[in-house]
Amino acid sequence: QEFVTVLVRDPRIQKEDSWHSYIDYEIFIHTNSICFTRKTSCVRRRFREFVWLRQRLQSNAVLIQLPELPSKTPFFNMNNPHHVDHRRQGLQEFLEKILQDVLLLSDSRLHLFLQTQLSPEDMEACVSGQTKYSVADAIHSFASLNRRFPVEDEERKKGKNDADSDSESSSSGLGPSDDSISCGCKASPASEES
């Protein structure tokens, strides 16, 4: 049975400049779904990137009622652990609901959001064909830059020799591929199915 486990965790305050700071969150994905190019991935995203994602998904799937993001409150205090954790939980619930919808899973922006560190502008350029790389290329490039388990390279080479061209992606560019990447994440077992 297919599963997609998503964890939003490890909020960190990042300095933009001497006056501005923001919080970003680690998004960890573990799945066996054929919809995903990478079976394990980890990226960091900030709240406004979630807002961008929701807007793009809604514009592409007008008949679907998307889940809400946690409200953006003027009283949000990034130094208040309760505020930060409440937002983190809301972001995780948002992604859990999104990842249950087959139509939304077909949106390349969602995959780039979850499995690369591309900016929203670069994600838009990629999905509209304005880059030299495809969606699958972007995901593979990010994975190879952030590979954490060197054993996987050997297993992939061995598997490629055994399977020849069977390891190529499907026509959607988001088909089956090899596994685990990380951006400093702690790998955790899939605790529950979504």
From TrEMBL:
<keyword id="KW-0472">Membrane</keyword>
<protein>
    <submittedName>
        <fullName>SNX10 protein</fullName>
    </submittedName>
</protein>
<dbReference type="InterPro" id="IPR043544">
    <property type="entry name" value="SNX10/11"/>
</dbReference>
<dbReference type="GO" id="GO:0060271">
    <property type="term" value="P:cilium assembly"/>
</dbReference>
<dbReference type="GO" id="GO:0006886">
    <property type="term" value="P:intracellular protein transport"/>
</dbReference>
<comment type="similarity">
    <text>Belongs to the sorting nexin family.</text>
</comment>
<dbReference type="Pfam" id="PF00787">
    <property type="entry name" value="PX"/>
</dbReference>
<dbReference type="GO" id="GO:0016050">
    <property type="term" value="P:vesicle organization"/>
</dbReference>
<keyword id="KW-0446">Lipid-binding</keyword>
<feature type="compositionally biased region" description="Low complexity">
    <location>
        <begin position="168"/>
        <end position="182"/>
    </location>
</feature>
<keyword id="KW-0963">Cytoplasm</keyword>
<dbReference type="InterPro" id="IPR001683">
    <property type="entry name" value="PX_dom"/>
</dbReference>
<feature type="compositionally biased region" description="Basic and acidic residues">
    <location>
        <begin position="150"/>
        <end position="163"/>
    </location>
</feature>
<dbReference type="InterPro" id="IPR036871">
    <property type="entry name" value="PX_dom_sf"/>
</dbReference>
<keyword id="KW-0813">Transport</keyword>
<dbReference type="GO" id="GO:0005768">
    <property type="term" value="C:endosome"/>
</dbReference>
<feature type="region of interest" description="Disordered">
    <location>
        <begin position="150"/>
        <end position="194"/>
    </location>
</feature>
<feature type="domain" description="PX">
    <location>
        <begin position="3"/>
        <end position="120"/>
    </location>
</feature>
<keyword id="KW-0967">Endosome</keyword>
<keyword id="KW-0653">Protein transport</keyword>
<dbReference type="GO" id="GO:1901981">
    <property type="term" value="F:phosphatidylinositol phosphate binding"/>
</dbReference>
